[in-house]
């Protein structure tokens, strides 16, 4: 009897303790300063955790935000537990946050448990989620390395053109048959390009190591991000289906792959023969060794993970979108091909130096990017100080999510923004205009460091494949979907096409 009484007494004390915690948390929640930014009602402790998780995991993320915007207006807030998240939309406010006052919103929310855990798996913050002096140093180095081994170098352009030739050979082997795996062809090429910049060599397209690497990248880009219930409470990954386990396993696999290459580079390093990004980093690391520096082995590893992940999937996904749009609008495709044939002729490949003479082709590629919205939002930013957006007070450490799609579809900029029209980027004299409103790689201080490389890949691949092939529907009656499926990037819904030699 005494044992039973003691047991019940223990349960009673535990229940009382839990009640007190919830009561105190509720009081703190109710007495903290309230924001006047509109948004759905937030619950004590959990905030809008279900809505935030729904936003981050729904394959129709853009529609979800459209519904929220209709209800609360172009600027609204939600809470992930105690973390305030403010969604910013429209070109005026998005460009204000990212460009004009970019330094006020320059940080990343690496304080969220799910993000902290993911960074721990990688071994550090790298470029993407680093803040402060660490970020400045890593970004400065990465941009310099991308200039030295990337855009503007004839060797890189040759590598890109060789990869395009490999894709073209694969398409030619199809002999006009149905193609359902175009992205798989494109991702081999984009993976090889960034691989050559970082590691100094490329794979053959049928290489088993390349196939495993692509599978790893697919795992990293699958599923929701860290702004979810399991991102706030990582322990939920043990019981929730929409967990981050697959992504973490992908990051771990990529980490081991990169560590192996770094070790090989250290063993064969010759300061008189700088081969690639890793060698350049080893030089900088040695020069900084006598001073406190963020250029260390962990930073090298995590920066490569960030660059490799960002430089592979996004480019391949955008290229997948380009040919979906081309089979939907054969008249636009034909006009691009006529321009390319007139400027290039039949005997050679399109090069970057031809870009300024291919205005309509360039405008078409820009229109494809603005209509496809491979990235609907930027990665989350954080206010580094108390500030104001659109008259609303924004406390320090507020998470800010600028909407790229809201700029691309802003009716204050564009007439009929959701109608496919490359002409919106051309002046009457056939010059490129309005490029400041195309921001698929974000803009401002936190713009993607691989932007120039990606733009070069997109232009060369798009123009050269159009120069060689005519793309069309397998069945003229095929109905194509342009809604897309949203994960970390927005990919086209499955579609089929065929490619015939011109």
From TrEMBL:
Enzyme Commission number(s) of this protein: 1.14.14.1, 1.14.14.73, 1.14.14.74, 1.14.14.75
Cofactor: heme
InterPro entries the UniProt entry points to: Cyt_P450, Cyt_P450_CS, Cyt_P450_E_grp-I, Cyt_P450_sf, Cytochrome_P450_fam2
GO molecular-function terms, A-Z: heme binding; iron ion binding; oxidoreductase activity, acting on paired donors, with incorporation or reduction of molecular oxygen, reduced flavin or flavoprotein as one donor, and incorporation of one atom of oxygen
Coiled-coil segments: none
Superkingdom in the source lineage: Eukaryota
TM region(s), chain numbering: 12-31
Record: residues binding heme: 448
Annotated keywords: Heme, Iron, Membrane, Metal-binding, Monooxygenase, Oxidoreductase, Transmembrane, Transmembrane helix
Recorded family membership: Belongs to the cytochrome P450 family.
PANTHER family xrefs: CYTOCHROME P450 508A4-RELATED (PTHR24300), CYTOCHROME P450 508B1-RELATED (PTHR24300:SF417)
Protein name per Swiss-Prot or TrEMBL: CYP2J
């Amino acid at each position: 009897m005494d044992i039973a009484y003691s047991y019940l007494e223990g349960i009673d004390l535990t229940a009382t303790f839990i009640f007190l915690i919830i009561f105190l948390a509720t009081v703190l929640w109710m007495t903290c300063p309230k924001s006047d930014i509109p948004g759905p009602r937030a619950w004590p402790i959990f905030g809008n955790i279900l809505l935030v998780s729904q936003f981050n995991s729904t394959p129709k993320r853009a529609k979800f935000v459209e519904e929220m915007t209709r209800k609360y207006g172009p600027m609204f807030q939600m809470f992930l537990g105690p973390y305030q998240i403010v969604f910013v939309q429209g070109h005026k406010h998005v460009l204000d946050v990212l460009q004009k006052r970019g330094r006020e919103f320059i940080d990343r929310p690496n304080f969220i448990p799910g993000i902290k855990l993911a960074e721990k798996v990688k071994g550090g913050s790298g470029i993407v989620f680093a803040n402060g002096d660490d970020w400045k140093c890593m970004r400065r180095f990465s941009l310099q390395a991308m200039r030295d081994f990337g855009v503007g170098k004839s060797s890189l352009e040759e590598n890109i053109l060789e990869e395009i030739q490999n894709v073209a050979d694969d398409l030619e082997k199809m002999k006009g048959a149905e193609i359902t795996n175009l992205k798989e062809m494109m991702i081999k090429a984009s993976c090889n390009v960034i691989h050559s910049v970082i590691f100094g060599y490329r794979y053959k397209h049928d290489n088993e190591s390349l196939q495993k690497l692509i599978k790893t990248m697919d795992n990293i880009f699958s599923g929701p991000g860290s702004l979810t219930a399991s991102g706030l409470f990582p322990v939920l990954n043990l019981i929730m289906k929409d967990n981050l386990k697959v992504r973490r396993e992908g990051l771990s696999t990529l980490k081991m792959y990169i560590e192996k290459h770094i070790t090989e580079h250290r063993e064969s390093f010759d300061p008189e023969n700088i081969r690639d990004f890793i060698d350049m980093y080893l030089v900088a690391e040695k020069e900084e060794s006598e001073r406190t520096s963020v250029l260390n082995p962990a930073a090298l590893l995590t920066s490569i993970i960030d660059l490799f992940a960002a430089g592979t999937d996004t480019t391949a996904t955008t290229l997948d979108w380009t040919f979906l749009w081309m089979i939907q609008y054969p008249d636009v495709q034909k006009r691009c091909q006529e321009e390319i044939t007139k400027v290039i002729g039949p005997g050679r490949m399109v090069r970057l130096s031809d870009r300024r003479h291919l205005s309509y082709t360039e405008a078409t590629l820009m229109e494809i990017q603005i209509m496809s919205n491979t990235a609907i939002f930027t990665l989350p930013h954080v206010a580094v100080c108390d500030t104001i957006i659109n008259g609303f007070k924004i406390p320090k450490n507020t998470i800010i999510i600028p909407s790229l799609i809201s700029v691309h579809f802003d009716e204050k900029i564009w007439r009929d923004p959701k109608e496919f029209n490359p002409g919106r980027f051309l002046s009457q004299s056939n010059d490129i205009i309005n490029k400041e409103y195309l921001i698929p790689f974000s803009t401002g201080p936190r713009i993607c460091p691989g932007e120039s490389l990606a733009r070069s890949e997109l232009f060369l691949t798009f123009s050269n494949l159009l120069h060689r092939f005519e793309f069309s529907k397998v069945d003229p009656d095929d109905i194509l979907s342009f809604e897309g499926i949203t994960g970390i990037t927005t990919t086209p819904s499955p579609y089929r096409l065929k490619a015939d030699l011109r």
